[in-house]
Amino acid sequence: MEQGKCIIFSAPSGAGKTTIVRHLLNKPELNLEFSISATTRPPRKIEREGKDYIYMSVEEFQRLIQEDAFVEWEEVYKDQFYGTLKQEISRIWESGKHVIFDVDVQGGVNLKKTFGDSALAIFVEPPSLGVLESRLLDRATENRESVKRRMDKAASEIQFADQFDYLLLNDELTEALQRAEERVKQFLEE
Hints:
Elements: E1 6-10, H1 17-25, E2 32-34, E3 37-39, E4 53-55, H2 58-66, E5 70-77, E6 80-85, H3 86-94, E7 98-103, H4 105-115, E8 119-125, H5 129-139, H6 144-157, E9 166-169, H7 173-189
Parallel strand pairs: 1-7, 1-8, 2-7, 3-4, 8-9
Antiparallel strand pairs: 3-6, 5-6
Helix pairs in contact: 5-6
């Protein structure tokens, strides 16, 4: 199997990485396909099985860990596992496309270590933690306790930004989308 390239987008929750990834997936000339992560958390109202995530029980996820079925995985919160299945990467490369990831910061660091120079790791940086908190509250998918937990995590995640190849400040969405598109295109042409 020929290995393609990987584009990794990571950021604290609410920084805009999913919006940027969706934009790039709508650019057919980039030849990207989304890597669907596995998770044990319940789906949000707008999410669909097999499109946004592969949802599974904690027991099933732990069995797959034992079977070495993941490229990377992490227990982000107690009993909330996230991971990238090896079979998902193989499926995308076998179709002749490049993989694009939308993962948390630790997952991004782990994927970059795994794929090395075959991967471009982009850290999406929010303008400030205050703006990040406003974005999380505005999406109305989280309760106050969940937003606080995500904000506490965001403060530590920002410390990992220097382990990424490219920092993308998302202060003005249109500009951030353009910069992301340019950098990804440049990497894929290398």
